Amino acid sequence: MTTGSGSLARRLTLGDAVVIGLGSMIGAGIFAAFAPAAAAAGAGLLVGLALAAVVAYLNATASAQLAAQYPTSGGTYVYGRERLGPWPGFLAGWAFMIGKTASCAAMALTFAAYVVPPGWQKPVAVAAVAGLAAVNYVGVTRTARLARVIVTVVLSVLAVVVAAGVLGGSAVPPAPDGVGSGWYGVLQSAGLLFFAFAGYARIATMGEEVTDPARIIPRAMLTALGITLAVYAVVGATVLGVLGPERLAASSAPLVQTVQAAGWSWATPVVRVGAAAASLGALLALIAGVGRTALAMGRNHDLPAWLAAVHPRYRVPHHAEVAVAVAVSALVIAVDLPGAIGFSSFGVLLYYAVANAAAYTQTAPHRRYPRWLQVTGVAGCLALVATLPWQSIAAGIAVLGVGVGYRLLRRRARPGAITPSPTT
């Protein structure tokens, strides 16, 4: 494929794609998501983790199958348009935009919470967004290199946490009454923990930049997901074993508290550095992924066409990158960290529900997985959405309504401006 003036450069290898996926998944979620999951499910959070992983696997197979047929930027926004029509595609793209913009704000705030006192957290979080947006602006290969370094640092820090839990010998306090809410709580914990697995969508949004997308994207998605599940299972079992469900549910920094409870207080600064690096790694990848979805939506006039511009030198969607950085910075200033995980999960789970529905319609030449997997994927996504905290559901519905209203008004003002994208 020849790179045209409006196309992105194909530079990423399989290793690059896997590392970027890991940088999106093994991020701030592993330092933050276990506490609300424990509050919802108690010791059942490990069951919730397994359920989240199953839903993530179903979504990954659907996304991989679609990405092989449609190797272009935009992910499920493009797949929904091609397979289901403009409206499902728009809803998928808008759900991704709002969910991942909230994730970006959460990552930036998590980073700041680990490195500076409360009064400085919002300015530092905005500075982090600006700095990483600048890295993305000058080329995706630099994003891949930096992601590789950050993933290495974070995995090393998580190894220290696991070693502390295994060797420290801290006793587990008994689970108290009121921690966890039965199977409903387990399902809610799965929805919250899904926040940590959703980074493989980042790989699909880069279909226009991978050297051999039909081969690399499916392999990269499943490889990154498998590695992430193994890491989360080991770390989750360690943290739960050291702290117990009550102390874990009440902790604002559970991995720091784990090494302290295990008698490895010397490792506290190491874990804080790891949390900061994880947050930056996820934020780095997320800004690029949201920017490329904005690029695709701008190309189809579902968002302003200004967002579709590609930088003539760096071959990145520079207008979209700037717009995403501004939006995330505004959210950082306006909101706090609590609730961001649930709100993000709401948007991303709906995004994947559309992905599964789109994959279901693919014909035999493009099918890699049986259709029953996609049916189960839709059901799993909707079930986890329904069990999220009601505040997250209400806020998600309201913001989805804003997007629908915008598209309706634009269609009324310019009836011919929004047309289906050409089939790839």
Q: Enumerate how many helices there are, as a single number.
A: 17
The rounded Rg comes to 20 Å
Principal-axes geometry comes out as globular
Q: Could you tell me the number of beta strands?
A: 0
CATH topology assignment: Amino acid/polyamine transporter I
- Give the CATH superfamily: Amino acid/polyamine transporter I
Structural class: mainly alpha
CATH architecture tag: Up-down Bundle
Q: Unreliable runs, pLDDT <50, ≥5 residues?
A: 1-5, 174-178, 418-424
How much strand content do the residues show? under 5%
SSE arrangement, N to C:
HHHHHHHHHHHHHHHHH
How many domains, in number, for the residues? 1
Into which percent range does the helicity of residues fall? over 70%
Euclidean distance between termini CA atoms: 12 Å
Reading off the top of the CATH hierarchy, the class is best stated as Mainly Alpha
Main sheet properties: none
What labels describe this entry?
424 residues, mainly alpha, Amino acid/polyamine transporter I, 17 helices, disordered C terminus
Task: Provide an overview of this structure.
- It is built from 17 helices and no strands.
- Helices cover 73% and strands 0% of the residues.
- Residues 1-5, 174-178 and 418-424 have low confidence and may be disordered.
- The protein has one domain: Up-down Bundle (Amino acid/polyamine transporter I), CATH 1.20.1740.
- The two termini are 12 Å apart.
- It is globular.
- The longest helix has 38 residues, at 213-250.
- α1 crosses α13, α4 (45-69) packs across α16 (371-386) and α12 (254-261) packs antiparallel against α13.
- By secondary structure, it is an all-alpha fold.
- It has helices at 14-25, 29-32, 34-41, 45-69, 76-83, 86-115, 121-137, 140-168, 182-197, 200-204, 213-250, 254-261, 268-299, 318-334, 340-360, 371-386, 390-413.
